[in-house]
Amino acid sequence: SKTIVIPPEREIIHVIPRSFILDGQEGIKRPVGMAGTRLEVEAHIVTGVSTFIRNVERAVERAGVEVEGVVLEALASGEAILTEAERELGVVLADIGGGTTDVAVFYEGEVCYSSAVPVGGGHITRDIAVGLRTPLEEAERLKISHGCAVAGMASREEVIFVPSPGGEGGREVTKRALGEIIEPRAREILELARAEVEKSGFSNLIGAGVVLTGGTSLLPGMVELAEEVFDLPARVGRPRQLRGLTEEFSTPIHSAGVGLVLWAAKAERELERSVPGFIPKGILRQIRDFLARIFGVEG
After folding, report:
1. Which H or E element spans position 224?
2. Sign of CA dihedral 231, 256, 178, 235
């Protein structure tokens, strides 16, 4: 057995069992009903900075919502976008947010590594704002409307208008010039994610490739760049686990949100199975009723 020491400024968010060892017998997935004298577990432990968690909880509570639990964003996204086959074969999930990119490795059905790198889509926006001397909101618009993660895929002939910071006038640049600003940062994000995968020790077990999600994954060329950086097949992950989900919410931008709903519903089902007489309350009951009514998902 091994004792895990958690730094005082951090706390445990998840303990995810991968397999159990009963009296020296390894590889047991579900030891319920088995007899033995010594039970050990191989688990993936996710921790977070306590002060950051408290700040997020306070912000949610001020909005009038009770916090039932905290879920790592990459795990929530994984619930919504990964297939069972991908989880079994081995897959890298890169959830590219505004300020960070969450990286998770799944193998044999469970998460076996998770991390975050401090670079995301917001850094691309700031690069555009600085490089083209335009306000941040205009830089974000240019990224979404005309951006490309691979400069070579962008047109040398097509031009776009870039407003000046002062609000008067502006100038024209080619889409290729915009792509030349975006590509280095997009490549950095993916290379940092790849470094985390190599650090995990599971890099040789990624049979299903890479799944990108988050708003930045929608940039044209992002999949091609990921395939180059990881030397693995890649795709964009969209929420796919809820029947009746409208097109508005079936985008990578909402992967984590949809995944949180699925995560809570799964937690309720597990409680109902394991705790006799369990009656869902509060947000769990609301989620169950919401899923049953809107998406046809049973609680």
Report:
1. helix 222-230
2. positive
pTM: 0.81
**Over the stretch 200-255, which tens digit does the pLDDT of each residue have?**
999 999 999 999 999 999 999 999 999 999 999 999 999 875 666 666 677 899 89
Q: Are residues 65 and 125 in the same domain?
A: no
Domain that holds residue 49: 1-70
Domain membership of residue 85 (yes or no) is no
What's 143's domain CATH number?
Answer: 3.30.420.40
Last residue of a domain, one of 30, 48, 70: 70
Question: What residues contact residue 168 under an 8 Å CB cut-off, 6+ apart?
Answer: none
Segment 141-190, tens digit of pLDDT: 999 999 999 999 999 999 999 999 987 889 999 999 999 999 999 999 99
**Domains contained in the chain, number:** 3
Q: Please tell me the distance from the alpha carbon of residue 157 to that of residue 224, in angstroms, as a whole number.
A: 22
Helix/strand/coil (H, E, C) string of 261-289? HHHHHHHHHHHHHHCCCCCCCHHHHHHHH
Neighbours of 211 (CB within 10 A): 29
Residue 103's identity, in one-letter code, is V
CA–CA distance, 269 with 288 (Å, rounded to integer): 10
